[in-house]
Amino acid sequence: MNKPTSKRNKATSAASSDSTPSDDQDLEEISQEEDPGSATITVSAVEVPELTEQEQRDRLHLERKVERAFFEAGRALAELRDRRLYRSTHKTFEEYCKDRFGYSRRQPYFLMEAAVIFQNLEQKCDRNDHILPTNEWQIRPLSKLDPDIQPEAWEQAVESANGKVPSHRIVKDVVQRIMDRTKVLNTYQIGEVCQIIVKDNPELRGKGGCWAIVSAVNEFSCTVRVWDGEYTIGLQRLKSFNYLPQECQQMQSLSDRITQVYSDSLEETVKNLLQLLGKVNRPYLTALEEKLLTLLESEYGRIP
Fold first, then answer.
1. pTM for the whole thing?
2. Are strands 221-226 and 211-217 parallel, antiparallel or unpaired?
3. Which of 20, 129, 223, 288 pairs with 167 at a CA distance of 20 to 30 A?
């Protein structure tokens, strides 16, 4: 009766003996756990093929497209503005840019001015360097300089950046050094009447020869009022009429009247007439000019 039990015990004992590792096996496993760095890892080498000549040309072509993106945007915005292609949906260019592109009021003008600067650098900088700006922010400080000096400033900034595209800060520092070197004291006064001299500035297109009233005096520029708004203009683009205080007051009154009549939705003929009044090089209107302005004030309901 006890023999079957004895056999089962033996079987259990045998199974236990087979599943228990030997002392040598225990030491081997422990050794491997304690020294995982001894394990061998095989890494297959991946060969990276060199670019072919065609791929190198394609890369350069695509890089140039990326670099010129803001330039193309600025040119496109200028054409949209100049041809008034926004007029079917918006009264002003600024409203159109805000609704269509999400731009702030100043952003389209920054891009348009940057496009002019980029083209200037592209034409006048050393072609062997091929270092051109890649965004508007990098070259915004150059807008304070005359176009003839901008290439010099950009090349100095590239040199400061060790031959790479310079940052906004580097360009700003270079521009500041140049302006300190050629610093001109700003002697304009608020209320003074100046003439605008256009020099490759997209914001001032159509403003050449116009008179403007100084509304703020800055270190290297003045903020001035013309018939269609306010602009900040460098000192090199302004020339004083040297009017007497009374004559400046007369021009201030004329500026206020034109501003009250002007809006971007006016007919082109009316806007052209107001623009002509904004270019008179004397501190008064003739009898005919006075009648025309009074008629426009009456027609468009701007008389207080």
1. 0.50
2. antiparallel
3. 223
Q: Which two tokens stand for residue 192?
A: 């003074």
Q: Give the pLDDT score at 303.
A: 46
Instruction: Indicate whether 177 and 208 sit together in one domain.
Output: no
User: Are residue 110 and residue 175 in the same domain, yes or no?
Assistant: yes
Coil vs helix vs strand at 69: helix
**Residue 217 phi, psi (nearest 5):** -110, 115
Same domain, 77 and 176: yes
Number of domains in the chain: 2
Same domain assignment for residues 176 and 198: no
Residues 73 and 144 in one domain: yes
Rounded distance between C-alpha atoms, residue 9 and residue 3, angstroms = 10
Exposure of 35 by Cβ count < 10 A (0-12 exposed, 13-18 middle, 19+ buried)? exposed
Q: Where are the alpha helices (DSSP H) in 20-166?
A: 23-34, 53-67, 69-82, 93-101, 107-124, 136-139, 150-160
- pLDDT tens-digit profile of 125-176? 866 567 889 999 999 999 888 888 899 999 999 999 998 999 999 999 999 8
